[in-house]
Amino acid sequence: MKYQDILDACSLSAADTTGGTLCVTTPVDGSEIAQVPTHSVADAEAAIATGVQAFNAWRKVPAPRRGELVRLLGEELRREKENLGRLVSLECGKIYQEGLGEVQEMIDICDFAVGLSRQLYGLTIASERPGHSMRETWHPIGVCGIITAFNFPAAPWCWNAALALVCGDPVIAKPSEKTPLTQLAIQKICERAMATFGEDAPEGLIQTLIGERDLGEVLTASRDVALISATGSVPMGKAVAADMSKRLGKTILELGGNNAMIVAPSADLEMAVRAIVFSAVGTAGQRCTSLRRLIVHADIYDQLIPRLIKVYAGLSIGSPLADGTLVGPLIDAGALTAMEQALEQAKAEGGTVYGGGRALTDQYPDAAYVAPAIVEMPEQSAIVHTETFAPILYVVKYTDLDAAIAMQNAVPQGLSSCIFSTDLRETEHFLSAQGSDCGIANVNIGPSGAEIGGAFGGEKETGGGRESGSDAWRAYMRRQTSTVNYSRALPLAQGISFEI
Amino acid sequence: MKYQDILDACSLSAADTTGGTLCVTTPVDGSEIAQVPTHSVADAEAAIATGVQAFNAWRKVPAPRRGELVRLLGEELRREKENLGRLVSLECGKIYQEGLGEVQEMIDICDFAVGLSRQLYGLTIASERPGHSMRETWHPIGVCGIITAFNFPAAPWCWNAALALVCGDPVIAKPSEKTPLTQLAIQKICERAMATFGEDAPEGLIQTLIGERDLGEVLTASRDVALISATGSVPMGKAVAADMSKRLGKTILELGGNNAMIVAPSADLEMAVRAIVFSAVGTAGQRCTSLRRLIVHADIYDQLIPRLIKVYAGLSIGSPLADGTLVGPLIDAGALTAMEQALEQAKAEGGTVYGGGRALTDQYPDAAYVAPAIVEMPEQSAIVHTETFAPILYVVKYTDLDAAIAMQNAVPQGLSSCIFSTDLRETEHFLSAQGSDCGIANVNIGPSGAEIGGAFGGEKETGGGRESGSDAWRAYMRRQTSTVNYSRALPLAQGISFEI
Amino acid sequence: MKYQDILDACSLSAADTTGGTLCVTTPVDGSEIAQVPTHSVADAEAAIATGVQAFNAWRKVPAPRRGELVRLLGEELRREKENLGRLVSLECGKIYQEGLGEVQEMIDICDFAVGLSRQLYGLTIASERPGHSMRETWHPIGVCGIITAFNFPAAPWCWNAALALVCGDPVIAKPSEKTPLTQLAIQKICERAMATFGEDAPEGLIQTLIGERDLGEVLTASRDVALISATGSVPMGKAVAADMSKRLGKTILELGGNNAMIVAPSADLEMAVRAIVFSAVGTAGQRCTSLRRLIVHADIYDQLIPRLIKVYAGLSIGSPLADGTLVGPLIDAGALTAMEQALEQAKAEGGTVYGGGRALTDQYPDAAYVAPAIVEMPEQSAIVHTETFAPILYVVKYTDLDAAIAMQNAVPQGLSSCIFSTDLRETEHFLSAQGSDCGIANVNIGPSGAEIGGAFGGEKETGGGRESGSDAWRAYMRRQTSTVNYSRALPLAQGISFEI
Amino acid sequence: MKYQDILDACSLSAADTTGGTLCVTTPVDGSEIAQVPTHSVADAEAAIATGVQAFNAWRKVPAPRRGELVRLLGEELRREKENLGRLVSLECGKIYQEGLGEVQEMIDICDFAVGLSRQLYGLTIASERPGHSMRETWHPIGVCGIITAFNFPAAPWCWNAALALVCGDPVIAKPSEKTPLTQLAIQKICERAMATFGEDAPEGLIQTLIGERDLGEVLTASRDVALISATGSVPMGKAVAADMSKRLGKTILELGGNNAMIVAPSADLEMAVRAIVFSAVGTAGQRCTSLRRLIVHADIYDQLIPRLIKVYAGLSIGSPLADGTLVGPLIDAGALTAMEQALEQAKAEGGTVYGGGRALTDQYPDAAYVAPAIVEMPEQSAIVHTETFAPILYVVKYTDLDAAIAMQNAVPQGLSSCIFSTDLRETEHFLSAQGSDCGIANVNIGPSGAEIGGAFGGEKETGGGRESGSDAWRAYMRRQTSTVNYSRALPLAQGISFEI
User: Which domains, ranges and CATH numbers included, belong to chain B?
Assistant: First the structure.
């Protein structure tokens, strides 16, 4: 399929993809696929103003009716799954299967949000005063800014938007400048859903801003943006947090991860191998939940590591659009350099590197294909504590589970973690208060945070935000605690007496 | 009762109250009642280190057992209610009844926390994969710093500490430098409870740091303090938020309020008068939930305002320790100056001031007693948008409810709000998504956030934190989303296929 | 549209509607529209056996995947809304608008159930023992029998089935022998959804049994039917409960209602009139939530009642399939007789009857059209305490709200209730522990239990069951409380010591 | 300690324990310890009438205030723990440690209920109609009858009463005629708590009826008893259910259990032995959660069973009041006969019996001491499917886990179950939808349902009720679903159009 056909299938027009100043290259071969027009700071301010208008209308629309819009969005996404999945693959370089997976997550979260639209549960609470009733209710908060990253150009927007829309909030997307096309395609899908939905959807309910960091800064600076949900690096997240601290705005931060797997002696090693490879080389190691550290019990180390090295050597590297490819390219040359530097540092810290070299340079001289690397480390040294957005898997050995958990917890990030073990005592300990300190802790699967029914997000420098399932929807609403006195008396709480 | 007797009754020894560099004066008459030794920055760092040790032990203690410590704390507080209530009154100047009320809140939150100690509910969640189970669990987070303010020297510490302790977290208190004695007395009560509880309570579980802002900064700077819960002014909160953004630490911010009441034509005016006076002059207008703005319907304005002015004129101002006093002193001369300046500005903006002058200057020349002020304003001008920590009640008129709500929402803070009306359509509208934008919205009671069973806190510049009841306990824990694969297969989520 | 066309549009074949022993007549004109083949007791037993097989397979299918079947069912229902709505109208005689409303409820509950399929939340619970974790999980229970009534031949099946299916339970429907066609049409819709869904849906997952009461008795007698959800009269419900008590099986009982509205002086009378008329004459007074009693404050009685009598006189009575009809026929001659007897008794007890006569006898001699009746009663006498399934509205007067509430609560049933008042004190009192004793208590709307997001059902002789929204899904699952000891010690609870 | 001293310590007076017609013998030695006056049917009816009066007052008392009474009750129980524990031991024959354990559960549930008293959470729910709000609230239901059994004369009353009282319901206890004294002692404790509490506690709030089954029948027959919570045998439960089906009253049934443990090859056998012995011989096998069936994997059978037989042989049998006793007496001669008959039948079905003979006949000729029995069975035959209330442990062998689970699930009761295994795959499978069908499913502990924070109760013939923790409190309240229309329009749900 030609690249232009992929764009066309997503209804991207010449106006969307030509004549602009933002050059989009595909990591597949490094060629330019679009010159996207960008928004100015003034455009961003206008978008916020329109968003505020939309908020005033949208919050009046009953939640189940808002859910109907999200249901229609899900229907559109079902129809466009292959088209959008292919665009994701083209633009960010993940394999087509994973592109489809992103769209499926969008569909799933829409279904989930539709169900929520008849819940959004608050509480009624027993009051200590006669003739009083107490309630806790959740209300829409206002315009939500959604800042997303190149490696997941589709699903995280939808995790946020599907919930925000059901919760009564307009959304303004600011995608990565590396992957604007996917967001533009999503915006078109949304517009079709809104057209079907009809006039209850106000103008400005769903907007997209294309451009650089300065647009994000307009969002973080404005008191009219009630919430910033930002996915990206830790430094980006700290910058957002600092900006928001000036106006005490709300944030959902989904930042880096330096995710480990502990492999215990009782593990099913064949399952572990599959999980390790998918987690470490999937999306070319550019997921926030990519597996970066492998903490292996000494007793099985010599069984597992050689097997892994062998599997790594046989992985099919190639175009993410081609059938059978498991490892696509890195996003760009910068990512390649970072990987090379990390491997150098690892060697300097005593590591033994397997794989890790550049690949397919003949076929794709302008792209950044690499062979995924396994690095045996003598200990969990500085580079192992560092998140490098590339397919590098550091391996260390352990003998005591608590020491392994301490290693797992020693990094500044706290996104995801896992253990392979069939020993209940080990697995429950890993999941306990004394176990993993991450937001996600899995057993006998990799560190993915996958199903949309659970809350996704992490602790420590990962930023503390939660998205997707469970009660993540609450972040898009404000909590109101109300006491209604329907009696003819005015008792004070705590039995205080105050007579005028 | 002599001041020294009040200190003695709270087991404060000479070592606690003499020889230090922190001079504590009582607002009752401005006299010095203690010279409290302070902690150094090094002391604060040591306290954090001890706290971390305590955390490692305490998180292993089962939650219902942790609840037992809090139950014993509640029992101690029951015994000391009068003593501690009197000290609160002496040190911060609120009337004795309100001092007792603070201690009662401490007792209530202890009871509530004991119940929570067998809950701390997470979720089990339906998984999309066969042979997988999904769970969301809540775990202790670590050392909690509790920064409190002079106007509530007792209850907020306990809202935080009772929950934090049950949740598995050690606490380090940093009280206002204006009111260290109450916190010292609480610390002693805690130590008695811990002694009764026995050795499961590790050293350093409950600590107090006495001193200035630099101690707070040690807490905000340290990665070993997982959570800062800070009560105080908006500028203080912004400073804490900025510090915490550097390390992406967790915060609970309980900052200022500029709380309004709307009085509708159908209101029970006698009840409204009582509520207004208690809310506006209680604690000499120095509560975060003090009533500061009165938005009165034109049809009843002339019934209500003269009645209020008359009641104000008859309020008994005097020593907070004396029976019958309704209005005690401001905390200090600075507060007095701020009040005088605010009234000047109000006049300049067209306001008519009733009351507001200094009081009891003969009897208490070194104290800051004032007559509470009512100020009729032509509109909600700049000074009305400003929180002045003093008993000033600005009054404005309205004719349309939506306009009144817009006025109510126009200030930067979002703590508390209320309406007096018996018209269901008005009251439910006020509580709806289009109504009050505050964290607390009451009907036919003042803007107090009183009962501990509900979550306390506010939106916008009030900081967004929630304390006390409902699920406020979650802020003291970390959320863990876990998927356990107990099958012999490794299906990927979203139906992704990835074969090695 | 010809009757046969309505049947054809719902894919009912000659095999479904001819040659059987169950004669179905339409209340529209009393003509026979089908002779439906019935199932034998042996068929019913076989159906249960197949259901058990289906259960063993279906409970292994992950809940979100089960939700996908319900989503597809919802899609089919969207497509068939008009067709099925018309069949409902034809078969049970409610107006076409209400027939559509039933199908819309089916669609809504499907959407809601899809969302639930990623929730089905249990709890994780703090344990008092170190190294122990405690969980509460919800599991499928088994085959569910769904017994429905003629007046709602469609929606209640779906309230039950959508939840049961998502919860992992096969369903066996036993519709009223008066309205089998609607259920047969639904069965066909389900089969299409299952075909689209694919092989994960086992044979026997969704079944229908056509016949008389003996088939229901097979269901209640069998230990292999885990739950009976039965909608119908109080005597039917008591019979089911007695049968189930022999084997301690689970039930959801949705029985009769004798629903009242209190109209207070502050009510918006125009709104009240609309609500009263729709609630009292809709479905010709044959809803379980029909308004049967009107308790009117003396001060507005003379305003309201004459206005109502006038509106009643102008109601368009006619074929439920015709545009503009508001009042269709009673289900059959038996219903007519019951209505006539009730009106006789009402007169004997001092009532004054307006309307209530038979209508359209020329046009439809074999049908049971009536003019809805208003009956002014001197007090709430015996007949007013009786539920007559017909459009009779008894009116009584009150002066004191608590007395009105006492009247409202005096009947044996406890389904629904409402108040028209704009006085907050009255409305909240009505909703309080001292107010209505019904499962549904509304303010400023009629006694309908309408939205599917809330739980539907009633207290006292209404049977106590809950269906549809909130956590009604739990009735279709079993609760499991689990404690996992992952330590190497065996502490007993409550500190018991027992050394061997 | 003399028996009379035990009675005296519990404040039982001569009026309580002499001159009545109900002879109470202690199972310790079979001697008569009291002749308790009984209540008549007329007394029971009067008690219900007083209870209704109490309900009308108590439901008005705010729930947190009701919680204060329960807190005071907990304080009284703390004081009386040893006294009451000893009476329990004397009257029902369980060892003193277990008697203390019962009282500790009472204390724990009181603490838990106090916490609940500020929760009793309902929901606020998103409505599909503009200007409407939807709520689900929980209200008191009325008088609760609590029927308890001889084997737990104390704790189950308190599980029910603590929750019922907090929920707003008066309670009437009907203890077993074998153990009235414990309930009389509890009644006295309650009266002290109520006296401390003051006048908010109405007369008749907590009542006790002493007598035979006819008193229970007064409770089940009366419409004024909203809920019957009954603990006892399956036949008793079916009788209660049949009675209640006549008036569609609410029940909580806690009936028999036939609880199994599966011991897998990976089990920690030393822990298993301790758990088995405590579970099977504790309370002389007369707990509803007693371990009755042991399903042991063939690979470890020969390790485990001889070890068990040896431990059994060494168990100290003796007076439950004596230090060091592990096995006290059966309740009476009837229980002894039932045990002997069961062992005969087991032999007839191919079983090999170890132990099981009568013990201490010289020392206590009038008591029913037995040596606990282990019975190796060739298969799970008829007697193994039968619950015999005595210390008989049937042992069967398994090789396939699913077959073991099928055996575990094959009995009609569904109370409790457990597995000893350290293999995560086995343990999670056991806890899954395809695992145990019991209300309680434990891992690496016995089948006790112990901690009060979880819900206690079982499936199938165990009756389906839940008591104690989680949301068991809801059974003591009625659910109210309310929609409030605060708009000036009257939209119908499901978009129905109905114009008059």
Answer: 3-255+463-481 (3.40.605.10), 259-443 (3.40.309.10)
